[in-house]
Structure formats: C-alpha cells, structure tokens
Write a structure and sequence with these properties.
The protein has 238 residues and is an alpha/beta fold. Helix content is 46%, strand content 11%. Keywords: Carbohydrate metabolism, Hydrolase, Isomerase, Magnesium, Metal-binding, Phosphoprotein.
C-alpha cells in the first residue's frame, strides 16, 4: 500500500502491536472459570469463544457485564475503586486486572516483529502514529515492550474514562486519537484485531480499517467493517 495516501496510523495494542491479547485471554479465562465455579454454574462453563464473542476489544467493565449477561447473570455495578474481592462488576473487572498484572510482571512481553517492522517503515514516511486501546494497562505494556517512546499519542482506558468517552465498538476513542494527532479520520488508518475495534474504525469514517487476524477470523473482521485483513503487519511494509 502507498502510505503517502495517509497521514496517520492508529493502532490497537493487545493483539496488534503486542501478543498481550493472549495474556488477557488467560486472565479472563481464569477469572470466569473461578467465578462460575464459585456460583455453582457447571452446565455453561467459560470457553475460548466467550472471549471473542463478549469481551475482546471492549473496556474491562463492559467485558464483565457482557459475559455475565451471556449467562443470564447480573451484579451490582459497584465503583472503579472496589476491591478485587467485591462481588460487583467493577470488583470482578479489578480482579481480572490482578491476574493480568501478575502475568505481565512474570512473563514480560515482546512486540510482534512484523508490527515493529511497520513502525520502523512509518517512521521513514513521516506518518503520525497513535495507540488507541481499551486497556488501562496500555502504558505499562508499551513500556514493557520497549515501544513507549514511539507514540506521541496514547488514548487508553484511563484517558477514555477521564474524558467520558464510550469504549469500542463506539468510534469515540479512535476519533479522539485522530484529533490529538491533528489529522482527519479519512486520512488515517486503523489497525485492529477485534471485531468491536474494526466496527469502531468503520463507524468513525476512517480512510482504511485493517483487521489483523489473531484468532477472530477473516470473515468476522470483514463483516465487522475491516476493509482489508492481514495476519502480520509486515505485509504492509513498502
């Protein structure tokens, strides 16, 4: 593709730049497997497809809420300050974050080589770059992956909460990323591995939405709004 047709590239983080989506998946699995067991729910256990169907790409508390709804369960909303032992939506979300933080500290993270190759290429073209992630852990992940100094703009879950922006699949966080970069959405490319994320890019009117298939599937990403689907960002270098 000709990168001179675009002024900016906006990247989701987990599953696009770094393989931390796998760490998130394990954290969600451990959280809900424990939770369903404690509730005595054995006929509808947590399965891998639950991550893609109800959780992937969404703000943490939305993921908790949507998974619980899939099992006809409800909890009080609670507050973001709830302890991770609280039986609330926020409490469960904070418990999941404990699982994730422990795994990140123990295992670290290496960025995808193809994603680094694309970032290196974009640096030569003068293309502006930003990270737009639902995760509140984005700064820590970027630091651990050695990518923090590559991005002038990071719109993460904390920024979205402070600004009152709805999370993906709403386009607001991507539009905020484009605004902070000083570019029009139609002149920017969105990179996403989640159906909720490609839908956000599509609904935001971005010039190109690239789905990165790390497990969601080409058909699901295309149906969600991806203009093109790749398995590695190195395919877009040059």
């Amino acid at each position: 593709m000709d990168w001179h047709d675009y002024d900016a590239a906006l990247f989701d983080l987990d599953g696009v730049l770094t393989p931390t989506a796998e760490v998130h998946m394990r954290a969600w699995r451990d959280l809900f497997t424990d939770y369903l067991t404690l509730r005595g729910i054995t006929d509808r256990p947590y399965v891998e497809s639950d991550y893609f169907d109800h959780i992937d790409g969404k703000p943490r508390y939305d993921g908790v809420r949507d998974f619980l709804a899939s099992r006809d369960l409800t909890l009080p909303e609670g507050e973001p300050s709830d302890g991770s032992d609280a039986d609330t939506v926020c409490g469960l979300g904070n418990r999941k974050n404990d699982f994730f933080a422990a795994a990140l500290a123990a295992e670290g993270v290496e960025p995808y080589a193809g994603s680094v190759a694309l970032l290196d290429h974009l640096a030569t073209t003068g293309t502006k770059v930003a990270v737009v992630s639902s995760s509140r852990n984005a700064p820590a992940v970027l630091e651990a992956a050695g990518l923090a100094d590559r991005f002038e703009v990071v719109v993460d879950g904390q920024v979205a909460a402070e600004a009152g922006l709805p999370g993906k699949p709403a386009p607001d966080t991507y539009l905020e990323g484009a605004r902070r970069l000083g570019v029009e959405p139609g002149r920017a490319v969105v990179f996403e591995d989640a159906v909720s994320g490609v839908r956000a890019g599509h609904d935001g009117g971005f010039g190109l939405v690239v789905g990165v298939d790390r497990g969601a599937g080409t058909d699901a990403l295309t149906d969600g709004g991806a203009d093109r689907v790749v398995t590695d960002l190195a395919e877009l270098v040059g």
